[in-house]
Design goal:
Elements lengths: L6 E10 L9 E9 L3 E5 L9 E6 L5 E4 L10 E4 L4 E5 L3 H18 L7 E14 L11 E15 L2 E11 L12 E4 L3 E6 L4 E6 L3 E5 L3 H18 L5 E4 L10
Parallel strand pairs: 12-15
Antiparallel strand pairs: 1-2, 1-7, 2-3, 3-4, 5-6, 6-7, 8-9, 8-14, 9-10, 10-11, 12-13, 13-14
Length: 253
C-alpha cells in the first residue's frame, strides 16, 4: 500500500456487467475504497493490484446515488461519471447506506465542485401523497400526489465537511432535476418522525406537521426507515422517532 494511504471501507458487493456480452448479469467482487480517492474492484479479497478489474477515481464522478428503476429495490448504488455508470449492489440496505455515506463524504473531498460548490447526493426517492396545510382551515381537497427526493448536500467548510439533509417534493419526476421547481423540508429542523395509520407518516418541525401517505405499507416502512436514519443524522440524534396509531392533525398556520 502507498505510504499514508488507508483503506476506508472494503467488502463484497455485486458488480453489474454492463458490457454488450454481459447482458446485465451480476457478479460478486471485492470493493476497496482508499483515502486517496480510489475505489478499486477485484475478483476477490486476495487479489493484488495487478488483478484489478475496475478502478474508479472519485474526483471523476458526477454523482453517487441509489440506483433508479428495476435495481432500486435491490439496494443498488450508481457511480456516475461523464462516460459511464458503474452499478454496485451491496449485501443489504444497511451496507448500501454505509457505502453511500463513505462514498459521498469522500466525493466531497475529491470531486470537482458542482451545484455552486457543493455535492448533492440522492439517498431515496419515490411517489408520496402530501396533505395540504389548507385542510386545517377547511379549504382544499387535501391530498396531492408528489414526487419526493431525499438528498444530502455536502459543502467543504475549511477542514471540515458540512452535511445537510433535505426532503424535496415536485409535481412530477421530470421536475426533480431542478430543485427550484418544487418545495422542500429542511430535515435539520425535524423534531419528530412518526408512523401513522393507513400508510401515513408525519414529519414534525417547529413550524409545521407534514402529513404524508405512501402507496403501499412496504413503501411506508421504507420511507420511515430512511427518514428516521437521516433525521437522526441531520439533528444529531435530537429528532424523535415514534410509531403511533393516530398521527397529529396538520398545523393550522
Amino acid at each position: 500500500a502507498l505510504q499514508g494511504v488507508t483503506t476506508l471501507k472494503e467488502g463484497w458487493a455485486d458488480l453489474k456487467d454492463e458490457t454488450a456480452d454481459g447482458e446485465g448479469t451480476w457478479e460478486a467482487h471485492w470493493f476497496a475504497l482508499s483515502s486517496n480517492g480510489e475505489l478499486k474492484v477485484f475478483r476477490d479479497h486476495e487479489s493484488s493490484d495487478d488483478e484489478l478489474v475496475l478502478l474508479l477515481h472519485l474526483r471523476e464522478l458526477q454523482r453517487c446515488e441509489r440506483a433508479k428503476g428495476v435495481d432500486f429495490y435491490d439496494f443498488c448504488i450508481d457511480l456516475v461519471s461523464p462516460t459511464q455508470t458503474t452499478r454496485m449492489r451491496p449485501i443489504d440496505r444497511g451496507d448500501m447506506q454505509a457505502w453511500l455515506g463513505v462514498l459521498q463524504t469522500q466525493m466531497s473531498a475529491f470531486t470537482e465542485r458542482t451545484h455552486m460548490g457543493s455535492v448533492i447526493t440522492t439517498l431515496h426517492q419515490g411517489w408520496l401523497e402530501k396533505r395540504g396545510e389548507a385542510v386545517a382551515l377547511g379549504a382544499g381537497a387535501g391530498w396531492k400526489r408528489r414526487f419526493f427526493v431525499l438528498s444530502s448536500r455536502q459543502e467543504q467548510q475549511g477542514e471540515a465537511v458540512d452535511v445537510q439533509y433535505y426532503l424535496h417534493y415536485f409535481k412530477s419526476e421530470e421536475h426533480a432535476s431542478e430543485t427550484a421547481d418544487g418545495g422542500v423540508i429542511d430535515l435539520g429542523d425535524v423534531e419528530e418522525v412518526a408512523l401513522g395509520q393507513a400508510k401515513e407518516l408525519s414529519v414534525v418541525t417547529e413550524t409545521r406537521v407534514w402529513l404524508l401517505r405512501a402507496e403501499t405499507q412496504a413503501a411506508q416502512e421504507e420511507w420511515m426507515a430512511q427518514l428516521s436514519a437521516v433525521c437522526g443524522e441531520a439533528t444529531g440524534g435530537a429528532a424523535e422517532v415514534v410509531s403511533r396509531q393516530q398521527p397529529p392533525p396538520p398545523a393550522d398556520d
